[in-house]
Amino acid sequence: MADQEQVIFHPNFFKIPEDGKPYLTEAKCTKCGQLWFPKLPICPSCLNETFEDSPMDRVGTLYSYTVMYIPQPGLKAPLAIGYVDFANGLRVGAQIDVPPENIRIGMSLQVDSAVIREDKTGKQTISYVFRPAE
Ligand SMILES: [Zn+2]
Fold this sequence. Notes:
Helix content is 0%, strand content 46%. It contains no helices and ten strands. It has 134 residues and is mainly beta. The mean pLDDT is 93. The chain has strands spanning 6-8, 14-15, 23-29, 35-36, 51-55, 59-68, 79-85, 91-96, 108-118, 124-132. It has a single domain (6-132), classed as CATH 2.40.50.840. Bound molecules: zinc ion. The site of zinc ion (ZN) has 8 residues, from loops.
C-alpha cells in the first residue's frame, strides 16, 4: 500500500539507510565515556549533555523474553518481547519477530525494521525488531 501513512519510531537512534540494513546507534558520553541506549538528554553517570553517536553491531544475544497472548489495541497476539545483549555491553528491548515456540534464550538475533503497530486509521508505526541473525 504505497500511500499508506507510515511513521518511523525513534529516528534519532534507529536508522534505516536507503541502501543498507537498519541499525541502532549507541550514544557515548563525551565526558565519562559511558555508552547509552537509548540516547538520553543528560548522562546519568556524570550529568554531561553531549554524546557521540555511533552505529551499533546489528547482531546480539537474546538475554530474556516474554510472550503476550492477549491482543492490545494496534498489536496482534501472540507477541514476543525481549532483551538482547550486544558486544558493546548494552542491553536493548524490542519485539522479537520469531514464532514464540522457536525462541530460545541465547539465540543470535539481529536488528531489523518492521511495522510494530497499526492504528484504526491504518497509520503504521515502523520501528526496530529482532529477527534471527543471518
Ligand atoms: Zn558521562
